[in-house]
Amino acid sequence: MTDREPPRRRVPGPARSARPVARRRGPGARPAARRPAPARQAAPKTLRLGSPRPRLRLVGLALTLVLIAFVVRLFQVQAVDASTYAAKAEQNRYVGQVLAADRGEITDRSGVALATSEDAYDITADPTMFAPDQLKIGDGPEQAAALLAPILGQEQETLVKKLRPKNKALRYVKLASRQTPQVWKQIKDLKSALTKKEQTDKSTHNVLAGVFSVATSKRVYPNGDLAAGILGWVNGEGKPGGGVELQLDKQLAGKDGKIRYAQSGGRLVPTAGSTETPAVPGSDVELTIDRDIQWAAQKAISDQVEESAADRGYVIVQDTRTGQILAMANSPGFDPNDLSDADSAALGNAALQDAFEPGSTAKVMSMAAVLQEGAATPTTHVVVPNRLHRGDRLFKDDVNHPTWYLTLNGVLAKSSNIGTILATGQLGRTQAQSNKVLYGYLRKFGLGSYTGLDFPGETKGILAPPDKWSTSQQYTIPFGQGVSINAMQAASVYSTIANGGVRVEPTLVRGSKGPDGRFTPAPKPDKTRVVSARTAKTLAQMLESVVDDEEGTGTKARIPGYRVAGKTGTANRVDPATGKYKGYTSSFAGFAPADKPRITVYCAIQNATKGNYFGGQICGPVYKQVMEFALKSLQVPPTGATPARLPVTFKN
User: Fold this and answer.
1) Cis? peptide before 466, omega within 30° of 0
2) Which of 34, 102, 108, 389 is the most exposed place for a label (fewest CB within 10 A)?
3) pLDDT digit string, tens, across residues 582-606
């Protein structure tokens, strides 16, 4: 076969229409209209998108950087600075407060409260809660201070300074200490009222939301000024200010506790937990004081000081057998509940803090030395001239008199200065030896030494050694001038004689009761024999002559039915302001019953300026009033024995 082109097939299709024959146009013929060609459709444009990969890479990079920053910061917070941030969180979240210990009571010997504590509140605030960003106002501290000032009794400016401190991070300030529950209730009521109003009135702001309270206690003295000189006081900050409150503060104060808790917005978060160290309450202290006798002594001395227009006075009542102090009263005094009106000179315990020259009440020590040394007896004759020249001075008695013919007992009964000088001159071969012997007895009686009470501010008085006595002191010290003591020392001298010549250190505290309720007695006081029992008994009989004999100077101290031993004193007084003699110290000391002593009473009044100033005249009645009350209160019966009635004079 030869290669040939295959024959073309005719594809059947529609018949072609016959193409018209074009006519030839002659001249003048109209041109034929040309049929327009069909319009071609425009091809649609294609939207070409950019590649997404660059954008994804950019977003991914940004997210990676953010995550890296978070990871780095998280690592810093949780690993590098974890302890620092934790400490800050703890500091801001947790608040610590002191739990004040309950202060122990001070009671009298029968358990009657003389000083106790009542519920109180410290008013505190969180200054950050008064900031403008918290209260949404700029004068929050001013508004709060205006509300609190009349309630707390403080100046508004003072409160504003506390509520807007320089340290902006400070979260705790104390606005007022130891306020009564009524004060805190007033503040709470105000806070509640502001809170309710704030909920309905959007223009109201609770400016007291940052004010809080801390439970504590306030010292209260139920009997007002009774025994204030003994008790002392506790100030608004809880600090003791003198007296037993200061002396026994460690026992009374107890030990404060602590509490630490989570807070938010100044409120406790109960679910966050807390740590607490409980407070240990203080011990109760029982004094030897008898409240009723203290009241009687305080009234008697206050009335006499007022009547005599005196500077001050004191009365001490002591149990002669035990040395326990039953009363120690001062006038003027003060109310430890409110010191705002107290006279600063009246604060403290003048009976222990004042040093003064005792005068003739000191003669009993001179007589004790004379009797104990055997230099004379109660009936020894002593011729007493109106004047006596010794050393560089001319001595006299308190009244001009002809020559007195007195027994040694009479010298004491009539309180003769000259007779005492003559008697004590027999204590040694020379005046120097006599001085030394007398000094030894004065020291045994407790002069120049502290009483043993360890009371704050107590004075031990002034007693120079005998080789330092001036020419005049050699003769004035035997009758109580040129030597200084306090009232407690003076009372102790007479208690020593009443106790058979044995000095028992004075005591003011019977014991204490701890939080466990167990009573612990105070240590027993030291005892020292000063003179023999025989000498003491003789002295007691001689002191009876001062009160019982019509020649005596203490007749105003007589108590019907009781034998009373006592001694008057009227001494030149050193003015503490000028250091010069001005006025007198009037005094009376003694015990009863004289033959079976139970109670010693000592009274002294400083610088009486109205009426009589002699000790027997203004202190004798005080002694009688207090002693009579004490004997009845303690139910001490009269002995019924007949007094010795030693002779006072002798016939020449």
Assistant:
1) no
2) 34
3) 999 999 999 999 999 999 999 999 9
